[in-house]
Design brief:
Layout (H helix, E strand, L loop, with lengths): L6 E5 L13 H13 L1 E5 L4 H7 L11 H6 L1 E4 L5 E6 L4 E7 L4 H16 L15 E3 L4 E4 L7 H7 L4 H13 L3 E6 L3 E6 L4 H12 L6 E5 L9 H5 L3 E4 L3 H12 L1
Parallel strand pairs: 1-2, 1-10, 2-3, 10-11
Antiparallel strand pairs: 4-5, 6-7, 7-9, 8-9
Helix pairs in contact: 1-9
Length: 257
């Protein structure tokens, strides 16, 4: 192990797994190995329900290393505005930290987003049966322009260079100065309480663990201005940009070898 860090943090969508897809068994296997040696953090704009679909099914542990690995694993959904840790007594993941968005701000955000969608701009579909375009996650609101469960192929061609979401972000920032807005996934915008982002979520965790920023490294695919993985870089956390899960596998294997 040539990784000189105490804690390794990963984005989920686009980094450990394709958009809204379950993480591969290969990725799970190498994360098992990494979590035996280091503390591992998974942070995402998605809800904990998304972790239950994308991450945890591949990360079921049925061996003698379960206590060690789960004690080293921290799940931070909704950009770290919530933190889950494993409760060994109850045998379940439990919330250990949360930063809620004020109710009046949430209600304003929902109205503005609905008006934007109904305006017909930006090729967003106003109604998708059985899908969610606006997801109120209490601590975060996420806008998914084509719906959470649109085909991955459609998502990839809707805004491949993020230019469309940059325009939406600028428009929303004028209407919603009370929040911070970041680009995430392939078609999403994550809206959080003012001043809150992935960096804040990560720093709250390492402060709780009494670990310094220099002892953490973060891997993400949206490390660019306006991207929801950019704030750790701005906060002075060492970052590695990945092009996707295939490259992330190579990064972790290189550390393990």
């Amino acid at each position: 192990m040539n990784l000189l860090k105490k804690i390794v943090a990963f984005d989920l969508d686009g980094t450990l797994a394709e958009s809204k897809q379950q993480m591969s068994e290969e990725m799970a296997d190498i994360l098992f190995s990494l979590a035996k040696e280091r503390k591992v953090v998974i942070i995402s704009g998605g809800s904990f329900h998304q972790f239950e679909k994308q991450f945890l099914p591949s990360f079921n542990i049925k061996n003698s290393d379960q206590d060690l690995i789960y004690s080293n694993l921290y799940l931070l959904p909704t950009s770290g505005s919530r933190r889950f840790q494993y409760n060994f007594e109850n045998k379940e993941w439990q919330v250990t930290d949360t930063e809620e968005m004020p109710k009046e701000v949430r209600l304003k955000v929902l109205v503005v987003l609905k008006d934007l969608i109904l305006s017909g701009k930006y090729d967003m579909v106003p109604i998708i049966a059985g899908d969610e375009i606006i997801e109120d996650r209490i601590t975060q609101i996420t806008l998914s322009a084509l719906g959470q469960h649109a085909p991955l192929e459609d998502k990839k061609i809707w805004d491949p260079d993020q230019l469309k979401r940059q325009e939406i972000k600028k428009e929303l920032e004028l209407l919603l100065p009370e929040v911070d807005i970041n680009i995430g996934g392939t078609t999403s915008l994550d809206i959080l309480p003012k001043g809150f982002n992935k960096a804040k979520g990560l720093i709250r965790l390492i402060d709780n663990l009494e670990i310094e920023k220099i002892d953490m490294i973060f891997v993400g695919d949206a490390i660019f201005p306006g991207g929801n993985d950019y704030s750790p870089y701005e906060a002075g956390i060492e970052c590695l940009k990945t092009s996707g899960p295939a490259e992330t596998v190579k990064i972790i294997k290189n550390w393990l070898e």
